Amino acid sequence: MADNKRTRVDQLLDIEKAITKVWEDEKAFEVDAGDIETERKDKVMLTFPFPYMNGALHLGHAFSLSKADFAAGYNAMKGKYVLFPLAFHCTGMPISAAALKIERELKSQANPTSDSPKPIEPQTQSASQEPDENDLGIKQGRSKKSKTLQKGGPNMTQMEIMEKSGIPKEDIPKFIDPQFWVEYFSPIGQKDLTTFGSLCDWRRSFVTTESNPYFDSFIRWQFNRLKCMGLIKFGERPCVYAQTDRQPCADHDRAEGEGVIPQEYTIIKLKVPKDKLPECLSSLKDDPEEVFFGAATLRPETMYGQTNCWIGYDVNYGAFRLKKGEGIIICTKRAALNLAFQNKTEEYGVVDCITMFTGKDLIGCECVPCLSPLKTIRMLPFAGVNETKGTGVVTSVPSDAPDDWWGIEELRSKPDLRTKWGVKDEWMNNLDAIRIIDVKGYEGKMIAEVFCRQIQETIEKEGTGNLQALKQDAKKESYRHSFYGGTLIVDGPYQNKSITDAKNLIRDDLIRDNYALLYYEPEKRVMSRSGDECVVAITPQWYLDYGNEDWKTKTKKALDNCNVFFPEVRHIFEYTIDWLKEWGCSRSFGLGSRLPWDNSVLIESLSDSTIYNAYYTIAHLLQGDMFGSKPGLLGIKAEDLTDGVWDAIFGLTPMDDKGDEHNPKIALATPNHTIPASVTTEHIARLQKEFKFWYPTDVRVSGKDLIRNHLTFYLFNHTAIFPEEYWPKGIRPNGFLCLNGEKMSKSTGNFYTLEGAIEQFSTSSVRLALADSGDSWDDANFLTDTADKGILRLTKELAWIETIIKKPTEESTGPLVFDPDNLCVVDASKLGFFEKVFNARMDRAVSDADNAYSKWLFREALTRGFYAICDARDAYREICSQENKAMNEDLLRKFIELSTILIAPICRQYADHVWRHELKKAKSIIRGSWPVMDNSAQKVAQDESLVEQGNYFSNVLRDARLSVTKKAPAKGKAKEPEKKKDVECVVYVRDEYFEWQQIMLTLLQELFPNEKALEVAHSESPCTCEDCIKKMDVEEDSDKPKEKKGAWEPSTNPDCIRQPSPSYIMQAIVKDMKTVHWTRAFSHEVRLLIEKYETRLSSEFGLCEAVNGMTKRLEKRIFDLATASIAGKSGGKMTTLTIPEGSTPAQAKELTKLWNVMAGDSLQFGVFMLDKAIKASTVTVFDTKRVFSESQILTESRTQIAQSMQKSIKTPIGKLEVQVVSVPATLTEDELSAKLDPSNKTKPAESEFPPVALRAVPNKPKFKITETEAQ
């Protein structure tokens, strides 16, 4: 079996290699605007963030890139001019950090007494732009062992990793030069993507950094221009900082913690009187500096309510000396280190530790609070103190912090705990909560106590199993209510001020009066590529002023005009644009381009990757290779590309730097506006033509983790540099790629390099499995089983095509000859019914695939295009086999051509092989081969009817076979000899919907008035409140729990505008059937849901008229639905269903059960029809009239039904007759009457229709089989 698979894979690999060589020889993907005389509407420019080149590409890269590549192939087949360029990113620290490790390891080998290099920790791989520093890739792809274990374990050195990754041992020393990495891996990336069949114009490829002088000139021009516009500034600001590298650590310089930003705290100075110092601090009694506990808080406005202070019993603390006159702070060493990098110590970055001790040494220590009415407070132990968060010293405000209230209650109620921790009983005095905030909805109460009492009640009923989750919820909810709905009630200047207004005012007062200081630390742990934990440092640096309000306004306008494909994504962009402020754009270590006015620093990796799409349009004219080592087609030298040349190319007015009035001493940009004589007017005109033809980018594809940095920067920088006509038109984020349902990660071994995956499955099967992985912005799933099945499907399909074309078979009179220049045209008027169905199915598959490809729904294109047309062929082949006739040759030609076209955007090499070598077409399938379809309403309706009839008939044949398939005799039981029998089959069909089903369909029409509403049938409306943004999970974080999808729950956040999905509302409305029937009105809860949906219909779908009177109309629909259901179930004997007087509890229970049955039947039917409409992408499915007569079709096809059944009957048969009987839609079982009158033991009235017929519904006939001994 394995050998057979390998043979098939090798067959595909040989085909792919040969076709790729043909493309290279033909220069198939090279396209120049200078050679095109057409309107710009015929162009499509697609891009993907350039991958980071410190190792081999992996499936995560391929998944994101494949979206753009599939779209590029589709648009090229539609006859458009497509540009899909790709470059390679080398800016940043990962390469330099890895090179430095190798250098240290070589020195260590030469001098064994030197310090050993740090082991490299295995890291989780992201599907985005930049992998971790050791992502070299192993050719064989995935192993059950982790990648680190494959290489020998977690303590592998960088050199050992290189060697295990296939790098010759003698070449490894070359990698101490970062430039060697750039030159080594970038060509490998191009080779892998060429093997992958990417439709890339490689002439336009480049590497970033100073390695390519042409691209370097472009970046320096961009930054000169931003500086002249006043958008780059200089100053001290907090940033995540790598201690070893002594520079800011931007997102792509991190091994862990991408997206983490500095968190601002206020450290409250709780001064310790010298006569109150504990024994561990007795040496400080004569020190001239004040000693204070540094308590970090996010809520300085609550200091009025301090009752005590928390410390961790086993936490390590120290006394650290700050700048002269600033005092001695007691905190954790981690916090002291952050403070040292925030200019709080005498020597920047150096911690002056006086002594160390643990929390138990501080218990009971008295200190002086600020703002609190208490004169002194004590240090008490608390298990919830986290040494890795804040300073390890926590203020206690039990009135407004549930954790504090809970901690005090535990100490009070547990004397054994007090004894264990050394807490004296008298210390528990003066710990009563102090009410300082009046909260809306909780007037006169203390919010923390309210929520904690609720927890106590809950655990009394349910136990403590869920206690931690309850505490977390209480903490979150009390904070939200207090902050957004609270008013300060204490005496003072801020009495009666809202908490949102008072917070910063109180903080500023505390800092001014020396009661507090600002403190920053990373939101969560960040590890640099060099292996150390990052701190937050205050550093002087150049930064992009993304907080500029005018710039934000322009960027929001660009977003408004940009297609981002998913409403949730738009809201994340909006949130990010509002949130974003300054962004450090310089660093001193790594690779990159240098700031033009300050050559001592480099431009960081997320800042040199914002407008490079514009460089793609002209790169091939400027540079001769990806490294820019020689001039390109125009012969221009890199040193001649002045700012004046770049301005001219992009049609921009030259600008000069006016400086910063607030910081007049900073360096000025000095752009060179001259245009050298070597750059002629003709050169400028040619470059302008390329840029103006291709730009702007039509769609940029990317992983969703880049929304909050790279993609937002992409929008900002385009609005700054270019006029509006060149702003991005589309951004399509996608989720991360899972592998077989699990996160793709080298550390677990669940991982494939692109080269390894291709070698194991072939390019075509990898691409097919990637297309099948998913199209939403949720995480996708690459299934190796799908790739394996793809191998079999493609090779079997190829073998069938080769056979059917070359010689006669039972299926074809053959051989088939194809027109080398045109597609086969079929005259449908000359076809029989089953041929017409096959023809319509093929046309439908093309239309559906066309629609899906145009919407970037590649799994849907694969399913409803290629898979659907193959299914149609198989169904037609089965019919022909039953009738012992060959398939229609014109239809076979059409099928082979169209099926090849439908798979071509995905399996490009496979399809072009079939196109050229099997069908003998004159041109490649890549260019302009997509068929022009008749999409007139008449043709679509005709095809839809035929497809419906064909699908229906296929299902009937399947059900007919199943109806006569007998089970095997029980094990051990002798099989009796079969006698010949005559078989009579009666097929019961219903040509109409029940009345209640028709009402349900009108209800669906009401709720889903158009296809747009249908598209979001199972989606909640997006929202950008804090809670909803956190649920969107745009960062790949293994520790973050995924959002649970289930029933909709309303948010308690007052800022939340999230609304339930239409399908959820439909279910709620139908379930309210009993209430409507009895009261003629919906329940209050359902009315609120409908109001929410009315808002969504008008705001999101623009259907304002559909909203008018909607609630009343729906109430009538549900009342009619209830009445019709009762009538139908009772055979027309009843129209209402209420609990009769004198009913027993059992009878009342039975009635309630019946209501649930009716609602359940309605919902089951509604959900079935909704899913059918979603799959068909049309609301015409909700029409109440059938598009064809089932009884007529089956009556005309009784012979085919009999033949299908005959194949499944294993016993000898004489005659087999098939009859078709149409059942009236009004005929039902008398269910209600029998159940409502327990004394009535009679069955429903007998009729000519047996019970099996009564359950016949549209699209689902019932079979009655009668066997008699043959005469």
Automatic annotation (TrEMBL):
Annotated region Disordered: the residues are: 107-155, 1035-1058, 1232-1252
> Keyword Repeat: yes or no?
no
One annotated GO molecular function? leucine-tRNA ligase activity
Source organism's superkingdom?
Answer: Eukaryota
Q: Which UniProt keywords apply?
A: Aminoacyl-tRNA synthetase, ATP-binding, Ligase, Nucleotide-binding, Protein biosynthesis
According to UniProt, the reaction catalysed is: tRNA(Leu) + L-leucine + ATP = L-leucyl-tRNA(Leu) + AMP + diphosphate
Instruction: List where Polar residues composition bias occurs.
Output: 108-129
Where does this protein have compositionally biased stretches of type Basic and acidic residues? 1035-1047, 1232-1246
Quote the Gene3D superfamilies the UniProt record gives.
Answer: HUPs, Valyl/Leucyl/Isoleucyl-tRNA synthetase, editing domain
User: What's the top EC group for this one?
Assistant: ligase
Give a yes or no for keyword Nucleotide-binding in this entry: yes
Output the PROSITE patterns linked to this UniProt entry.
Answer: AA_TRNA_LIGASE_I (PS00178)
Per UniProt, residues of the Methionyl/Leucyl tRNA synthetase domain are 687-786
Give the family from UniProt. Belongs to the class-I aminoacyl-tRNA synthetase family.
* Classification via PANTHER family: LEUCINE--TRNA LIGASE, CYTOPLASMIC, LEUCYL-TRNA SYNTHETASE
Its recorded name reads leucine--tRNA ligase
What is the protein's species of origin? Blattamonas nauphoetae
